Amino acid sequence: MIRDELRKSLLIFGVLHLAIFLGFYVVIAQLYYPASGEYERSLALQMLDGRLPYRDFVFEYPPLVILAFLAPALLFRTPLAYSFAFAGELLLFDLTILVLLASLAARFNVSVRGSLVVYTVLLLAVGPLAVCRYDLLPAMLVLASLWAFVSRRTAVAWTLIALGVAAKIYPIVLVPLFFVYQVINREYQRLLRGIVCFLGVLFVVAIPWLIIDTGGFWHSLTYHLERGLHSESTYGTALLMAQVLGWTSVEGSLTYGSWNIASPLADALGGLSFYLTVASLTLVYGLFGWLLRKGLTTRSEVTTLRPQDRGWILLQFASLAVLIFMLTNKVFSAQYLLWLCPLLPLLGGRTRYLVWLLFAVAAALTQYVFPYHYIEFELGGSGTVAVLASRNVLLAVTAFVILWGVMHSGGILSQRH
């Protein structure tokens, strides 16, 4: 009976997401972002013409992305056909997320339909970027690695997180969570196998490109370190708001494929962002380890964590770590919000409703600016600047609420939806 209900829910939401992606593609992406998939197509066509990424042309993405860009081009090469096939590929990643999310929800006695509803609403709030950017691929790999980890498939989990890193750098923030979890639970053999799998996958993925052109491959990594302060980042919107208020002045320009800002203060903040990110994430990992050791503090007592509860805590901190990374990084593109859409539906405690509301509003504000009013933002329009600054404030509050819910309510163990 449970499996029948699970299949029925997945069928219903699968059809719904097909309609959503068609709507995004036909009505929104083609009207407001007519170049959808064109950059990806141009890179794929160069590869099909025999030119190698990293060596023959600049390729700013990790190696696994090559497959994601190439797959649609193997069948379709015209702009319209490629963009449609690329959106279809992203739909497959989205449908995989639905299956993984339903499986995790069932495992932790969470409402499957409730989780799928939340994911669908958050995806709608983020908007047409779901069919324009490949970020659902690393988001799917992150969720798959968490599913494998809590299912005690250690080698699979570490392999999947390595593939996530090979698709987008941000999944690296989950690696310390895995490490801390297994050290505190004294799973040393599992940890060793996991590290071997993680490093082995990265070696296999990277070594061909290092042999072909070491300098070109390393440039794809240093490229992101060299980027300026992104205008949409927490620091960037703060400086732009200060400019609107007449407190400072910055200059904007299109560099490294994004709209970045420059000034002495902006450059200083961009340089500090890496250290702020490391410090913030270190605090998150420390709190995670402390919780695993001490348990959850309720109003009256300390609740000892059972093995299944530790996996549940891991899911909560995965969301928090990704969000902190986004907020403290010097680059914060709109599509990064897709990283959180599969993770937030699995939050527990009474505060989860507030988290979902805050994130949905923040995502809707982002969608308002991109793709609909981004030119106004680039021109420094006070309204759009205020919208994105408000978005970042809401996300900062979201991070605080997630942390508060984990540390104080004890509701993760007893208040599941």
Short précis:
By secondary structure, this protein is mainly α. The chain has 17 helices and five strands. The two termini are 20 Å apart.
CA-CA gap between termini? 20 Å
What is the helix/strand order? HHHHHHHHHHEHEEHEEHHHHH
Q: Unreliable stretches, pLDDT < 50, 5 or more residues?
A: 297-302, 410-417
What's the mean pLDDT score? 91
- Summing up helix and strand content along with how strands pair, one would put the structural category as mainly alpha
Cα gyration radius (Å): 21 Å
Number of separate helices: 17
Largest sheet: 3 strands, antiparallel
What is the percentage of strand-forming residues? under 5%
Spell out the blueprint of helices and strands.
Blueprint: H1 2-32, H2 38-48, H3 65-73, H4 79-107, H5 112-126, H6 136-150, H7 154-165, H8 175-184, H9 188-212, H10 214-226, E1 229-230, H11 234-244, E2 251-255, E3 258-262, H12 264-294, E4 296-297, E5 302-303, H13 307-328, H14 352-372, H15 374-378, H16 382-409, H17 411-414
Antiparallel strand pairs: 1-3, 2-3, 4-5
Helix pairs in contact: 1-4, 1-5, 2-3, 3-4, 4-5, 4-6, 5-14, 6-7, 7-9, 8-12, 9-10, 11-16, 12-13, 13-16, 14-16
